[in-house]
Specification:
48% of the residues lie in helices and 11% in strands. Strands 3-2-1-4-5 form a five-stranded mixed sheet. It has a four-stranded antiparallel sheet with strand order 12-13-11-14. Strands 6-8-7 form a three-stranded antiparallel sheet. The longest helix is centred in the last third of the chain and has 43 residues. The structure holds a DNA duplex (12 and 16 nucleotides).
DNA sequence: TACCCCAGCGCG
DNA sequence: AAAGCGCGCTGGGGTA
């Protein structure tokens, strides 16, 4: 059963897509509460779902037409469909841009929810999408991706609704300890000011370390052979100014990115509520906007504290991308190296000598390293695991030729900008540039299939977990165990303490289920570390 | 004034 | 200024 929502109207369809009812909607929340569980079909989850959650209504399933359209438009699995052949239209509009910072005391309803400029007919679009899936090379595979993507859209809105518990007093305490008391507007906090004075004292002249230009000039004036002020370069130099300078940079970064200003802007009523953007990265990973949710530094994770009587279950999928790579390639040797710690397994296979080598070799294989330790170790991996390495090499060569690559469930890479494909060979400089860009695109497509498939695993993981969490208790979503954070291969569930162990078990179960959804009976395992902690800083 | 780009660094 | 992928955010510095 499906119900397609458009402004003021709800049209119901049976499983075959036949219209069974068409009715006006005056009270959306009441209608949805009454009809659950059906699969709600709507243009954009962020347009419909925040108001439902605010009214205390959670939905089981949906189809997010905009997100599904983006997948079907590009997927090689639906390349022959009418949807893919049509000219770009309203359904191809990119995701709305991030919400701007809001003052404290945000309204209950999400006033910035995107409103489409043109009201497109969701029924017509949904029918086109059903047609594309049914006619695809592999309807089950692409269908799973659309379901997972739509579940992700629900989770993203639910996580913003719940917010990540963050204690402002603890955060301010951390800042004060590291930086000194909150400074007056426009002034440096005490620790930064005294570090700056040390830098000036050592070099013997005044300069502003916040300005990269001034800092570079100052270092060169002091006789240091540097071409930039980035810490990887500076860290190599032996000079008394380096240690306090690196300290200054670290603290300055904390201050600007996650200091008092950040706290005032993004943490309201003890909750950090960024906007999560499913499908916001070409590979299918989520993006986030507002407060840098996906960059929450380890320094301040101590301020992420569960409510009284509640706790966090922090879970991390171990070596997710290497495992996905092994499973996708059907490389039995590499899959079996992952029966425990995957890097130890690779060492045991004899390919490399140490765990650290195994790790950089795998990273090199996934990112396309050609030099350094990483590049040097990849060929040894290729001898031990030829199928796995051949898969990423093939993806890289395809990208270099300007071809499209596709993830496990059917998300395809964008076409290259392609000027490098046609670069004439007359001009040597242009040819060399074209070759460089072709290689670069090859590294992108190489990584795309792994990162994108890992993102699909993570979506399936979270979708399964979401279902399990809902059944553990009664009440509104924030009264039950619920997801509050997601970071590519890591989740945080906020739960009543008594349910923590059940939550942890569900997280592991959902990981197993996700592995089977993507890879069937292949004996690939997706071990997940779980930690029951009061504060995020205590995990790992 | 408003905007855009860059360097740098945080996360996976 | 990275060798080796994907992001977002900030302040500085420039241009219109």
């Amino acid at each position: 059963m499906y119900v397609v929502l458009s402004p003021g109207r709800a049209r119901s369809f049976d499983a075959d897509g036949a219209l069974t009812a068409d009715e006006p909607v005056s009270d959306l929340a009441a209608l949805v509460r009454d009809r659950e569980p059906v699969r709600w079909v709507w243009d954009d989850t962020r347009r419909w779902y925040p108001q439902l959650l605010a009214a205390g209504v959670r939905v089981e399933r949906c189809v997010d037409l905009r997100l599904c359209h983006a997948i079907l438009r590009n997927s090689t699995l639906t390349a022959g469909s009418r949807l893919a052949a049509a000219a770009a239209g309203v359904w191809d509009a990119p995701a709305e841009l991030p919400a701007p910072p809001r003052p404290r005391g945000e309204a209950l309803f999400d006033l910035d929810a995107p409103e489409p400029a043109v009201e497109a007919d969701p029924v017509a679009e949904w029918m086109l999408q059903r047609e594309a899936v049914a006619a695809s090379n592999d309807p089950a595979r692409i269908g799973l991706l659309l379901a997972a993507e739509s579940a992700g859209a629900l989770i993203a809105v639910e996580m913003k609704h719940a917010g990540l518990p963050l204690d402002p007093a603890t955060h301010e305490g951390l800042l004060e300890q590291l930086l000194g008391p909150r400074p007056r507007l426009g002034e440096r906090p005490a620790k930064l000011e005294s570090l700056k004075q040390r830098l000036v004292g050592i070099l013997g002249f005044e300069f502003n370390p916040d300005s990269a230009v001034e800092l570079l000039k100052a270092l060169r004036k002091a006789g240091l052979q540097v071409t930039s002020t980035s810490k990887w370069e500076i860290a190599e130099i032996d000079h008394p100014v380096i240690e306090p300078l690196l300290e200054y940079k670290k603290l300055s970064r904390l201050m600007t990115a996650n200091g008092w200003n950040w706290l005032d802007t993004w943490v309201v009523d003890g909750r950090f509520r960024p906007e999560y953007v499913p499908g916001g990265v070409v590979t299918g990973r989520w993006a986030a906007a507002g407060g840098g949710a996906l960059q929450l530094p380890k320094q301040i994770r101590g301020a992420v504290i569960a409510d009284p009587g509640w706790t966090f279950v922090v879970a991390d999928a171990a070596q997710l991308e290497p495992r996905v790579l092994a499973a996708m390639a059907g490389d039995r040797a590499m899959v079996s190296a992952g029966s425990g710690d995957m890097y130890e397994g690779i060492v045991a296979s004899g390919a490399v000598a140490t765990r650290a080598e195994a790790k950089v070799a795998m990273l090199g294989a996934m990112y396309g390293a050609t030099t350094g330790d990483s590049g040097r170790l990849v060929p040894r991996l290729a001898r031990a695991f030829p199928r796995a390495i051949a898969m990423v090499e093939d993806a890289a060569r395809a990208g270099e030729r300007g071809e499209i690559v596709t993830t496990r469930l059917g998300r395809s890479s964008p076409p290259p900008a392609a000027d490098w494909r046609r670069e004439s060979s007359i001009d040597a400089a242009a040819e060399s540039r074209a070759r460089r860009e072709s290689r670069s695109w090859g590294r992108f497509t190489r990584n795309f299939i792994v990162q994108g498939s890992a993102a699909e695993w993570a979506l399936c993981w979270m979708a399964g977990l979401r279902g399990a969490l809902w059944t553990m208790q009664d009440g509104a979503i924030t009264e039950r165990p619920h997801l509050v954070f997601f970071l590519h291969d890591e989740v945080i569930v906020h739960t009543p303490i008594a349910l923590a162990e059940r939550v942890a078990a569900s997280i592991r179960q959902a990981a197993d289920d996700a592995g089977r959804l993507l890879f069937g009976d292949l004996p690939v395992t997706f071990p997940v570390t779980t930690a029951v902690v009061r504060s995020y800083a205590e995990a790992k």
